């Protein structure tokens, strides 16, 4: 089996910000402006103790004018600080939201282009969490805590600079106690917090995935009596998440050790500052500046302790998101039609290709000539495995001529659906090639591929919306009258009339209300709207009532005219009706490769 990239449960957290830089770069001007405004606002706040200290010295010197200047400066600083804080918060939030919006768009775009194989290999709950919850957490951090992080960082730097200007001796003594102790606490915290937060995020992803599967498979679980097993599994996952959360909490507790450091530093400051003032080495005003400024310093450090924890959680989320963006940044045959590089175009020589470039709307289905690009669909020496060492298809070759009608039969699990997905380019083969009209599907323009080769799956997926919304889920967003024409052409007008509100009948999520056969009717109408040259139908295995079966047959008879048809045949009637039937045998390793008959 070829090596396929997978998401990591606990992705690398080193240099996360540097790795995120390509996504930040387009916003660098906004970021620089926000940082500069935040720094100016912090400088205003840091200047306050210095002005208060100067005011105290003027007061002690009975300098009335000097005192008034200090009071005026304090008022101006307060107003300027208010304005700059507000401005920096606004700039940070706006820029941050832009970055987050960009990341969200990119994640959804990459996921929508990701190969089917990648999507199937990951629990949808995990993908959902990375693209929604974790991005939302990031957005909340940007809005709620990032301004505080910058303010705190600014306080720490500016306060140190101001204090150095007043008394280098006292500042050095302060830093000599404060810095190593606080760095030690932060190191200890990071050592325990990084794995703890990553494990918590992974456990949360597992809980979401299990819960989602539980909801999605509710009918099967009820009927098969599997609810108890699933509930047990969910409870186990939930327990694991609870334990992971407690581990994170314990790691967060470590950060509160910084309060002990604060107490020690204040004691030292009072001892040394008081002595220097008594000896006349520094003024009383300077002691006041130190007391006020170090208070700010401590407040910032306390705030920083909480913020470091929140920042760590956000960085873990960012690392998981970057992992998703990196792993899905692999253009492949399932990519959207805006990746024309190295793709070929089907069609008669000299005729314009059917696929447009980025943003080109496809031509209306009827305006295209399906026969223009009609060709042979050929699989040669195709190998495919979902899991290493267990090939489902081991070197299969099959040729289907233009306009041929072929049935694909075989025991359950023999690989019929897998082959159908390979023949329609939904999976790239691990080895071997699938060609249509002489073109390797892997090299075809993805948009064109989707319009030429259409698979109607066994269970057609629906979205919440009306029947019309669901039928129109094809390239080109066809208008209602186009959809209605397609319905009539397939002889399905009577079926649509039996529904409450015809094409406007609302269908719930999961399309409650439509039977398996009716869902396939929806798939056939979608196929008719795409008007492909090759149609692959994976017949529904569920019982289909005679009326729906008749409607399906009529629709299929209309659809098959002038196009290649491959039916994964589960019903005897279908097998009998088709002129050629290929039988797949269950493949076992090292046995001769099954070939089409
Ligand atoms: N997404 C998947 N991940 C892992 N294994 C899979 C996946 N899909 C199918 N398989 C396995 O591959 C094998 C072939 O499956 P496939 O659905 O192609 O068979 P089939 O002939 O269409 O079966 P059926 O007639 O029951 O639909 C089976 O053993 C199946 O369990």
Automatic annotation (TrEMBL):
Amino acid composition bias (Low complexity), ranges on this chain: 331-352
Region (Disordered): 331-367
Localisation: Cell membrane
Gene3D superfamilies membership: ABC transporter type 1, transmembrane domain, P-loop containing nucleotide triphosphate hydrolases
Domain ABC transmembrane type-1: 32-312
GO molecular function: ATP binding
UniProt key word ATP-binding: yes
Primary location class: membrane
Name assigned to this protein: ABC transporter ATP-binding protein/permease
């Amino acid at each position: 089996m070829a090596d396929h990239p997978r998401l990591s449960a606990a992705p690398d957290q080193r240099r996360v910000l540097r790795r995120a830089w390509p996504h930040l770069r387009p916003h660098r001007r906004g970021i620089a402006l926000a940082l500069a405004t935040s720094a100016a606002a912090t400088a205003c706040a840091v200047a306050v103790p210095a002005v208060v200290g100067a005011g105290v010295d003027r007061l002690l010197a009975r300098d009335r004018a000097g005192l008034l200047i200090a009071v005026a400066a304090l008022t101006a600083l307060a107003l300027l600080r208010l304005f700059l804080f507000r401005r920096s918060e606004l700039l940070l939030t706006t820029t941050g939201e832009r970055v987050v919006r960009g990341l969200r768009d990119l994640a959804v775009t990459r996921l929508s282009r990701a190969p089917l194989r990648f999507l199937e290999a990951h629990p949808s709950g995990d993908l959902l969490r990375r693209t929604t919850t974790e991005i939302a957490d990031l957005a909340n951090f940007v809005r709620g805590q990032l301004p505080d992080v910058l303010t705190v960082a600014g306080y720490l730097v500016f306060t140190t600079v101001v204090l150095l200007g007043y008394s280098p001796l006292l500042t050095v003594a302060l830093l000599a106690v404060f810095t190593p102790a606080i760095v030690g606490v932060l190191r200890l915290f990071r050592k325990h917090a990084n794995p703890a937060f990553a494990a918590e995020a992974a456990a949360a992803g597992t809980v979401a995935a299990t819960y989602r599967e539980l909801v999605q498979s509710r009918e099967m679980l009820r009927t098969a009596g599997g609810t108890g097993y699933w509930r047990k599994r969910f409870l186990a996952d939930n327990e694991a998440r609870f334990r992971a959360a407690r581990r994170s909490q314990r790691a967060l507790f470590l950060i509160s050790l910084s309060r002990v450091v604060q107490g020690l530093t204040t004691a030292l400051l009072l001892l040394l500052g008081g002595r220097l003032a008594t000896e006349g080495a520094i003024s009383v005003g300077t002691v006041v500046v130190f007391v006020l400024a170090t208070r700010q310093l401590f407040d910032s450090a306390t705030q920083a302790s909480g913020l470091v924890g929140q920042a760590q959680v956000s960085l873990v989320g960012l690392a998981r998101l970057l992992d998703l963006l990196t792993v899905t940044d692999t253009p492949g045959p399932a990519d959207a039609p805006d990746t024309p590089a190295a793709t070929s175009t089907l069609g008669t020589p000299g005729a314009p290709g059917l696929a447009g470039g980025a943003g080109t709307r496809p031509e209306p289905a009827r305006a295209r000539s399906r026969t223009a690009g009609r060709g042979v669909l050929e699989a040669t020496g195709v190998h495919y495995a979902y899991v290493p060492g267990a090939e489902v298809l081991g070197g299969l070759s099959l040729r289907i001529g233009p306009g041929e009608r072929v049935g694909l039969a075989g025991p359950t699990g023999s690989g019929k659906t897998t082959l159908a997905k390979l023949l329609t380019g939904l999976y790239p083969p691990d080895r071997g090639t699938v060609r249509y009209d002489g073109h390797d599907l892997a090299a075809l323009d993805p948009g064109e591929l989707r319009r030429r080769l259409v698979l109607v799956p066994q269970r057609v997926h629906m979205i919440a919306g009306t029947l019309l919304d669901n039928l129109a889920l094809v390239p080109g967003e066809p208008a209602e009258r186009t959809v209605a024409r397609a319905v009539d052409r397939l002889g399905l007008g009577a079926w649509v009339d039996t529904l409450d509100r015809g094409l406007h009948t609302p269908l719930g999520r999961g399309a409650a209300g439509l039977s398996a056969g009716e869902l396939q009717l929806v798939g056939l109408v979608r196929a008719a709207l795409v008007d492909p040259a090759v149609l692959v139908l994976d017949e529904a295995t569920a019982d289909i009532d005679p009326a729906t079966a008749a409607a399906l047959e009529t629709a299929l008879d209309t659809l098959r005219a002038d196009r290649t048809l491959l039916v994964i045949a589960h019903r005897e009637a279908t097998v009998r009706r088709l002129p050629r039937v290929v039988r797949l045998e269950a493949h076992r390793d090292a046995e001769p490769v099954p070939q089409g008959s």
